[in-house]
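Structure first, sequence second, as always.
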């Protein structure tokens, strides 16, 4: 018996000495939770020459735009990294027993794993190779994913597909400002490695202000499409208190554009997390005719909101762009819009000739017209006003007839200019009477 055991051990050692390769296994689950490597490898191998395998599994994961190809059980695909060949095999084993699904059907259990074989000399490269796989897979996951817009209902986010056609090409915006915004966003994208290395949460904030119809929502959609991030549209009136706000923050995906529209209209009491009413709150209460601020008032506080944007819950590895919109930025607490929270304050206003010409070009493919001259005079000399949404409305209403569209814009501007003159005359009269 001893002799047999020893000869088996010798044979195993001999085979191992003759086989210079080493095998790594990546199971689908570690313990009871899904293991991250399994999913990342699956995505990464999808870009390798997987279609050369004989049997391939095809799936369409949630929110994916394209099919995901996976090796079937026992199939192999080769990869190369730093001059070494890595052989990947997908293993699927049937487990004894079945589990019962919610509809009472029985599902057979499987144990899945990827196995990677490589020459022993390449094992020192394994960490670098896995880092490479992780980076590539994360990039692919991000670009292949269908974008979602999430809105908060009670303490949860409800998601829907986000399909908004606005991009920085379609957005009519002052050319310099557009270049600046795109430059900041590109720099943000390129700093991922820097933030990961320094262990900091990567975030950036915009304050968009200006009258209604000047493109604030279109700007937000352009940012989401440019960054390829999901949108989280935070409705503060539906948030019960600060702990609800914190819970929403922790449920957000790592890469997100977080939008708080019309933040000036949200009544955020100035009790910075302590619950103690501040001087400003007392003043507000006195203006309302009350002795004390209403400390029982539900809803998040300014402190809760400040923590939401850069508190401890913002974890390293997350990439978040906060966008606040406001029609009255003067009403906002300076702490909310200071650099670091709102890095860029972007004024979206009435059309100037450049913005109007951009709309004309995208709606009507027209770059020049004799009516542009009176339009330019009305905009710049008479200071007539038209929002991009109003201008887009006229251009859309007269599809295929540039002259009619521009004539309608001219009439609008003339009316606006007359209105401005009568307003100015009225204020002069008031001044004179005073
Ligand atoms: N700067 C712009 N560039 C291109 N299109 C614009 C622009 N501004 C407005 N539009 C057009 O007008 C419509 C309304 O604009 P948008 O909803 O983006 O404005 P808003 O400032 O968010 O308005 P509100 O404050 O009322 O929500 C858009 O669907 C778009 O067609």
């Amino acid at each position: 018996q001893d002799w047999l055991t020893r000869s088996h051990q010798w044979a195993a050692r001999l085979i191992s000495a003759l086989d210079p390769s080493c095998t790594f296994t990546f199971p689908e689950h570690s313990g009871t939770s899904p293991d991250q490597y399994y999913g990342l490898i699956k995505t990464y191998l999808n870009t390798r020459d997987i279609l050369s395998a004989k049997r391939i599994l095809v799936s369409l994961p949630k929110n994916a735009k394209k099919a995901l190809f996976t090796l079937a059980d026992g199939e192999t695909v080769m990869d190369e990294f730093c001059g070494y060949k890595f052989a990947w095999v997908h293993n699927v084993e049937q487990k004894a027993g079945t589990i019962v699904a919610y509809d009472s059907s029985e599902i057979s259990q499987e144990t899945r794993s990827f196995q990677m074989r490589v020459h022993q000399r390449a094992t020192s490269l394994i960490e670098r190779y896995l880092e490479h796989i992780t980076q590539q897979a994360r990039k692919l996951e991000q670009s292949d994913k269908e974008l979602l817009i999430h809105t908060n209902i009670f303490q949860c986010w409800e998601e829907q597909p986000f399909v908004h056609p606005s991009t920085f090409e379609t957005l009519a915006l002052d050319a310099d400002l557009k270049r600046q915004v795109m430059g900041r966003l590109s720099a943000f994208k390129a700093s991922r490695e820097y933030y990961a290395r320094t262990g900091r949460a990567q975030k950036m904030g915009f304050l968009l202000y200006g009258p209604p119809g000047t493109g604030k929502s279109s700007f937000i959609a352009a940012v989401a499409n440019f960054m390829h991030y999901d949108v989280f549209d935070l409705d503060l009136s539906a948030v019960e208190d600060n702990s609800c706000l914190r819970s929403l923050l922790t449920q957000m995906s790592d890469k997100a554009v977080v939008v708080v529209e019309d933040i000036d209209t949200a009544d955020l009491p100035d009790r910075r997390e302590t619950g103690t009413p501040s001087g400003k709150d007392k003043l507000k209460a006195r203006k309302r005719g009350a002795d004390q601020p209403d400390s029982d008032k539900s809803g998040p506080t300014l402190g809760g909101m400040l923590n939401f944007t850069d508190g401890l819950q913002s974890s390293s590895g997350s990439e978040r762009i906060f966008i606040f919109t406001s029609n009255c930025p003067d009403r906002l607490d300076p702490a909310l819009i200071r650099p670091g929270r709102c890095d860029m304050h972007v004024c979206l206003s009435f059309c100037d000739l450049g913005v109007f010409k951009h709309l004309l070009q995208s709606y009507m493919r027209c770059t020049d017209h004799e009516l542009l001259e009176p339009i330019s005079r009305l905009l710049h000399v008479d200071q007539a006003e038209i929002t991009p949404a109003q201008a887009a409305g006229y251009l859309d209403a007269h599809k295929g007839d540039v002259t009619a569209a521009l004539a309608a814009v001219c009439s609008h501007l003339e009316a606006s200019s007359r209105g401005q003159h009568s307003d100015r005359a009225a204020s002069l009269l008031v001044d004179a009477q005073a």
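Margin note: The pocket of adenosine-5'-triphosphate is lined by residues 170-173, 212-218, 388-389, 392 (CB under 6 Å).
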